[in-house]
Amino acid sequence: MTENLILQNGIILTPFEELHNSVLFLKDGKIEKIVYDTEFKSNKKFYYGKYKIIDINNNYMSPGFIDIHTHGVNNVDATKGPYEAMSEFIVKYGTTGFLPTFWNANISDLIDACKNISRFIKNQKKGSKVLGINSEGPYLNPKFGAQDPINSIIPRFNDYNKLLAASEGNLKLMTVAPEIKGAEELIKYLRLNDVTIAICYTEMTVNQLYKSIDMGVSHIGHIFNGFGESTTLDRGTKPYGLQEELLVCDNLMSEVLADKVGAHVHPVWLKIILRCKGIENIILITDSRDINGNPPGTYTMGDGFDAIIKKDEDIVRLVDDGGLAGCIMTMNGAINNMIKHTGINLKDAIRMATFNPARAIKISNRKGEIKAGMDADIAVFNKNIDIKLTIVNGLIEYYNL
What does R_g of the chain's alpha carbons equal in angstroms? Predict the structure, then answer.
């Protein structure tokens, strides 16, 4: 059962405004209203017994973070579960909603995973909410990424129709390489079923890019990771290709991997992405792997690959060739990294972790913003983005004030 809560003495990041001297009211699992502190104090007696009043101690309040790209945490693989363990782990880091994200597994395993996640969504009682499913595969170019190429298959209606049916409407995001045979029919089908379509693990041409946009593609999966390279320099002239076109294409929102050491995207490129795509089109993700939560060492991940976690790093590398294979980031870590690498202000970084991902998967009518009528999903944190309180649908799921 939800509690009626009043959060006072904090700074509210809506994330479109930064509100001082304001008080946030949560009622029946929704955001009820925001009032000035003076108004609250003059009517404070009226609220006793009707609301639980929490002093935020001059910390920040924002919408809860939304991670639309996480392959697992806490030794739990997103294709296998148990999803309770994922939910309970990430809620401690301010994430109030997420999409368990499949790696490029066998199609029959992905169908089974869709069934399991859909069942969990119906019965979930606590933790960060599973908001749907992100399927990064199996319709990828096998040349790219830390994946088993045997699982990259040609789209066939019978397969992806079963996948959609098993998801029961919960498939929110799917990655497709537009150049593979059968991709056009798949993209059209996903659009008809209101699935956000991402491009990644691809060497498509620029012409294929714009054709796919016309068919319904609206999303870039972790930009600069999993894309064909530009041509070589010609007498010192900067080459042009797909990745440069992604930067200037206003039709596409883009996921960004802002890890601590700038391994996935160099800090200079993060600044360029910010200037080209704009605050409104960037989505921070974790690309977290199931070994997230473990100390430095060598581990076997859920997809069977052996990987290394090094001290003071939040990235995962493969043992055999040192290639990048995701992260051990949390969403508050991604926000912190983006601020440090680019100098962006806190409010705008928060937007990239709240409203923007909500908009990308078409739930910004109820999540990702602090305003009356929205779901009461709230993260409270200090200037270092250390989480002090997480509220999901009006329920306190983590408390460290």
Answer: 21
| Model pLDDT for residues 139-177, shown as the tens digit of each residue | 998 887 666 677 778 999 999 999 999 999 999 999 999
pLDDT digits (tens, 9 = 90+) for 278-334: 999 999 999 999 999 999 999 999 989 999 999 999 999 999 999 999 999 999 999
**Fold observed for domain 65-367:** TIM Barrel (3.20.20)
Strands 196-199 and 219-220: parallel
What is the greatest pairwise CA distance in the chain?
Answer: 76
pLDDT above 70 covers what percent of the chain?
Answer: 97
For residue 256, give the nearest of 331, 307, 310 by alpha carbon.
331
- Start-end of CATH 2.30.40.10 domains in the chain: 5-61+380-399
The mean pLDDT of 355-370, rounded to a whole number, is 98
Selection from 252, 258, 205, 210 nearest residue 228 by Cα: 205
What stretch(es) of the chain map to CATH 3.20.20.140? 65-367
The confidence score (pLDDT) of residue 2 equals: 74
- What secondary structure does DSSP assign to 35-62, as a single string? EEHHHHHHTHHHHBTTBEEEE-TT-EEE
Torsion of CA 253, 254, 260, 263, to 10 degrees: -170
Q: Does domain 5-61+380-399 have CATH number 1.10.579.10?
A: no
Question: At which residue do the structure tokens 């870590």 appear?
Answer: 333
Q: Which of 229, 230, 248 is nearest to 239 (CA)?
A: 230
